[in-house]
Fold this sequence. Notes:
Layout: H1 2-36, E1 42-47, E2 52-56, E3 59-63, E4 66-73, H2 81-84, H3 98-126, E5 128-132, E6 138-141, H4 146-150, E7 157-161, E8 164-165, H5 176-181, E9 188-194, E10 197-198, E11 203-205, E12 225-227, E13 231-236, H6 244-248, E14 255-259, E15 262-263, H7 267-277, E16 282-288, E17 291-297, E18 315-317, E19 324-328, H8 332-351, H9 365-377, H10 381-400, H11 408-421, H12 427-454, H13 465-468
Parallel strand pairs: 1-3
Antiparallel strand pairs: 1-4, 2-3, 5-19, 6-12, 7-8, 7-9, 9-10, 9-11, 13-14, 13-18, 14-15, 14-16, 16-17
Helix pairs in contact: 1-3, 1-9, 3-8, 3-10, 3-11, 8-10, 9-10
Amino acid sequence: MGEFFLAALLILVVIALFNFIIFFHELGHFLAARWRGVHVDRFQIWFGKPIWKKEYNGVQYGLGWLPFGGFVALPQMAPMESIEGGNSEGRNLPKIKPLDKIIVAFAGPLFSLLLALLTSLIVWQAGKPTDAIVSTVVGGVVKNSPAEKAGILPGDKILEVNGAPVIWFAGDFEAITERIMLNEGDTISFKIERDGKVLDEEIISKFEIAETPFYQRRALPKVGISYSGPLIVKALSEGENESPADRAGIEAGDQITELDGEAIYGPMHFSSLLEKKGSAEVMLTVLRSGETLKIPITPLVPLEPKSLGRPMLGIVWDMDKIFSTIFTNPLPFEQIGDSFNNMAVTLKAVTSSTSNVGVDQLAGPVGIAKAKFQLLSSPNGWLKVLWFFVFFNVNLAVLNMLPLPVLDGGHIVLAIGELIFRRPMEGRVLEVVQTVFALTLISFMLFITTKDIGDSIPSGSSGGEDARLVWPPPAE
Length: 476
């Protein structure tokens, strides 16, 4: 029951944060309109007919029923009755100067950037946690995968992916996992260090993209490699019968370093070595309290379908010893710059004709809310959400400055056109153009939302969600 209330509380926090971001952006438009003497009809969070409204000082404040953003209704700038509702016909509102339109339109993105900057000051002092797999050593290779066929081996240290240096296995755009996902073209090149020596030639690997149901996002490229790290026993599996690890005397805290004299590089490598041995007895090299032990153990193949015929020992690994949380204190403008850079990388991947990333990989309101919920539910959740707050507000500012009708950048372009041609676009034409683009934008958001929801439906496949929200990441 306590977990239910905690989850409910976190959901309410996510909704509140999302709406606050929208409110602050629209507040910029509202205050700029008041300053420049522009008439304000309504201030509404979310689109559609209001499910709650209240009028104060001639302005209707409300909450709509379509959770896709918010707006300040400014009939002197852009009549949008067909989308925002309301009716400005019959009112003799004075025309406003193009400069006033530019100021009011720009104020929204400016307020989003200010909110990002204010939040970045907190992150600078409190710290920015990044969940990462620091080692770039290959901890396992999937059987019959592109990586195995290309010649990548467990224990190989990856120095570069497609000519770009990598600093860890997963964590950000400088990591192996992310560089594989953002690959362009039909192959991926790896610069490898093996047994302390850099290979003369790069290893060129193909990749696989798993099939996903139509209602889910497309999967992203994987070559079939996994992370490395120390294999430390966290616990022994519980069950009705004693497990092989119980019988052999394996204890929590033991670190397994070798299997039949062969060094182990990670969980996947250990599993593959064990699978090759079948149900035959193997010798484990174990570190316990500074002492090296040799422990014989005979695996068992459980009858349950979950095992898929694989031999098992009944060990639960301590994954916290493999995954790290890196704390940094980046300066505010460094955070803003990183957010711009991350967005540029994403937009380049989405728009590139040779990329395997498409618009369906973007997250909508449901996906963003889910990401925030998962961040809040994880260790150092509040600090992670604060950084996400910076990144999201920068994204909101940049996207709204795109020169498209409905968006703030579109209003600015129209105002500049009015300055050049000495007259505004005809009101009815402007409303039709705005409405078409608004409906297109809402349709796109609905499409993305279906993918957000679809990724939450179990299908037995490795869909697009793996690349965005699952931690630790699966084999790449």
